[in-house]
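tool_call: predict_structure(chain=1)
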Amino acid sequence: MAKFQALDFYNVDGLLSDEERMVRDTVREFIDAEFMPVIREAYRNAEFPRQVIPKIGELGLLGSNLSGYGCAGLNNVAYGLINQELERGDSGLRSFASVQGSLVMYPIHTFGSEAQKQQWLPKMAAGEAVGCFGLTEPDFGSNPGGMRTRAEKTANGWVLNGGKMWITNGTLADVAVVWAKTDEGVRGFLVDKGTPGFEAVPIHGKLSLRASDTAELLFDNCEIPSDNLLPGSQGLKSPLMCLSQARYGIAWGALGSAMACYDEALTYAKGRIQFDNKPIASHQLVQEKLVTMLSEITKAQLLVLQLGRLKDQGKATAAQISLAKRNNVHEALEIARMARSVLGANGILDDYQAMRHSCNLESVITYEGTHDIHTLILGNEITGLPAFS
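tool_result:
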């Protein structure tokens, strides 16, 4: 595999701080040296390469935009660049880190008690403990407010009943952040691995995100202590705040997939000789595809950089995050498909990346709000008229 050459047509590097570039380059080197050599076999075997978790923790990539409790306290642009490089490796790797940081560490950091923060955040930041996030249910994905999982208050704590579906890190997790309906509204709970009545069942047969741990969570009269309630969680707004954090990282991550596919297609096209002993890169149709990729990646780079600056200023809105997630994942998927077409028949082999990224992005465009749901979020934002029902 040729060494990755990052696309930077508009000198976006010049808009980054020294620390942001250093963080990105550190993760880029890790991906090239330690992740790319193992991802093909992991994808073939439908296994998450868990041997990389300690290194990710050592580099400070988990919950990196959180402060205290062993977290790196980086700004949101640096955090975005981390996601870009992780997903350049594979969407499954970025999903692991994104769930750990944005969907588990963030709610504990934001809604948890001091004891919960002390117990979980330092271990999670170091990669010594893994978490998962239980919101989506088999019958309620785009409509989380319809969830059926319930938590009933008892004299000794709470009893959970219900199930969650498509849970990243589900069988790896030492603890699950689970959202359930109560008499007080939707609340968040910490459910430890091994709790009686709690089971994580791996989902098999995936044709996408194969190098990602995905599970169904089942709760059957699962008793948890009162101390496992996230005391600051209140209503559906709490998990939606977590989703905004994750969607922000996804917007950067999809850009990494697109950059990997463009670089592979360009390198291949310049070296593939056809018709009069010329590289296929010399032909108009191929150049049109490469220019389209170049244009969309450059626009996506500028989009997430400005979003990151707004987020660091506390000015980013959920709708702005939806726009970036919607745009960047859609364009990344189109770029991955285009790159595969440039590779021709070779593009279906896992010697190359484009097909793997294309398959992964079919999941990324679905989770954390489908493309259509983000369309409706933005439609509501600009018209003031909800069209969800």
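agent: The first strand starts at residue 67 and ends at 68. Proceeding to next step.
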